[in-house]
Design goal:
Oligomer: single chain
Number of strands: 20
Strand order of the largest sheet: 2-8-5-6
Number of domains: 3
Largest sheet: 4 strands, antiparallel
Radius of gyration: 25 Å
Distance between the termini: 27 Å
Length: about 475
């Protein structure tokens, strides 16, 4: 369609309107305005009033608090970051102490919907009852529905592929789309007058209850591991001086090496029964082969990671899709690990203190191809207690060892040998088994909750059809 025939974009919007129905479309500057996209979107969303603009369902919309305004106080809360916005069920957040004034001004309520302001399209979560006080950071929008019961359905709608497609049509000034309040209010969502929001709320409540029970089991194991490492140093290392009884070990060392040596030495004095990781498991028997070349595979995606649950659930692709689709093929210029059974993944490049995650056997049972994992994760396969090890490796004492053990030539990175020498509790086989069993139950609850969430999103997706 030529520019001359299109004329004024506002006229075309008016012509597309069908009776009293509202038409949602992108209105960037005329130089980049795409009338074909407008027509396509109109056909996809024109449903005789069954879709409404998100802003009509809200009684408030605000941006989260700037991090610099989170002044110290004596009230324990969770601060939600962009990475904590998962599909419908929010992540754990970052624990902080804030002042009562910050809490009063910025704490969210039950039913509030959190959505990233930049990137992460297809992710939105709803604050459910019995959640800890949450204060959102500046990278998030907080949408408050006129009725709390609408929150889960709105969050589910924002997680659908239809809304993701709508957001993909927004004009960008950089690599990612930055949402404005006006754009967020224009997003088309199902109308509560035409669809059963109550069933969505019931489903989300069930999923949240499952996740809450799983988190209780996870926290219980974390507490028991914490008792084992109760006296281990976890922070506040000396910054300018340390007393070392054996100065000869300092040859070629930097200050970080000295701190790591002091940390390990202090821990062995204060905690009984510490062992190196390679004395607990045989690191050599848990290797995964690397692959190079164009191979169909179950590709690792960050969206499948729930780091707050120490769990990763990548989706097995359809067999035909995995063998024919080029975007499922492994790049010939990159190296990966190919994994075909349950594994523990430990981050080794970049954020080396990020939580390890377990990919359960259930993922591989339904996959016709192996899981392909980037080499900045170290996979340990065939472990007897992968979940218990994940909790131990995420303990602040072990996390501090990982931080100090990293090399920082270009980017932070850990070697396999650095991980093998980490000090961990020397618990008995029976104790490792008890922890693993409880964590298996927790992961089963988490997996069921995620399945429930996906079914909920699929129901709302059908409302757009």
């Amino acid at each position: 369609m030529s520019k001359k025939r299109v004329g004024n974009p506002g006229v075309l919007h008016k012509m597309l309107a069908d009776g009293p129905s509202t038409v949602w479309s992108v209105r960037p500057p005329a130089v980049s305005w795409d009338p074909v996209a407008v027509v396509r979107w109109h056909r996809a969303t024109s449903r005789n009033g069954t879709l409404v603009a998100l802003g009509t369902l809200l009684r408030g919309l605000r941006q989260g608090v700037v991090a610099a305004s989170l002044d110290l106080g004596d009230v324990a809360i969770e601060t939600a970051r962009v990475t904590d916005v998962q599909q419908i069920i929010p992540g754990e957040g970052e624990r902080r102490l804030v002042s009562p004034s910050v809490l009063r001004r910025h704490v969210v309520e039950t039913g509030d919907v959190l959505m990233p302001r930049v990137g992460r399209h297809g992710h939105a979560c709803c604050v459910v009852s019995e959640a800890m006080p949450i204060v959102p950071r500046e990278g998030l929008f907080v949408a408050r529905p006129k009725q709390r019961e609408w929150g889960p359905a709105i969050a589910a709608a924002l997680c659908t592929s239809t809304v993701k497609q709508w957001l993909g049509q927004l004009p960008t000034t950089g690599r990612t789309t930055t949402l404005t309040k006006a754009q967020l209010c224009e997003i088309p969502v199902p109308s509560p007058a035409h669809f059963d929001f109550g069933q969505i709320t019931a489903r989300v409540d069930q999923a949240s209850a499952l996740a809450r029970e799983g988190r209780k089991r996870l926290d219980h194991v974390r507490g028991e591991v914490g008792l084992w490492l109760e006296r281990a140093p976890v922070g506040d290392l000396p910054e300018d001086s340390l007393w070392l009884s054996d100065p000869d070990v300092l040859q070629g060392w930097g200050w970080r090496d000295v701190q790591r040596y002091w940390l390990r030495n202090q821990a062995q004095w204060q905690v009984r029964g510490l062992k190196q990781l390679d004395n607990v498991i045989d690191m050599g028997s848990h290797r995964s082969k690397t692959v190079v070349g164009n191979q169909p595979a179950l590709v690792w995606e960050t969206g499948a990671i729930r780091s707050d649950w120490l769990l990763a659930l990548p989706e097995p692709p359809n067999h035909a899709e995995s063998t024919l689709s080029p975007d499922r093929a492994v790049s010939a210029t990159q190296r990966f690990f190919a994994i075909d059974r349950e594994c523990l993944l430990i981050p080794t490049v970049g954020d080396i203190v990020a939580p390890p995650v377990v990919v359960p056997q259930d993922v591989f049972n339904g996959a016709a191809v192996p899981l392909v994992v980037p080499i900045h994760w170290l996979p340990l396969v065939g472990l007897r207690y992968p979940r218990a090890l994940a909790v131990v490796l995420d303990h602040p004492f072990v996390r501090l060892q990982r931080q100090l053990g990293g090399a920082f030539s270009t980017v932070p990175h850990l070697t396999r040998e650095d991980i093998a020498t980490l000090l961990i509790p020397g618990a008995s086989e029976a104790q490792w088994g008890v922890w693993e069993q409880e964590l298996r139950q927790a992961h089963s609850l988490f997996s069921t909750a995620i399945s429930q969430v996906k079914q909920t999103i699929a129901i709302v997706e059908e409302w757009y059809a």
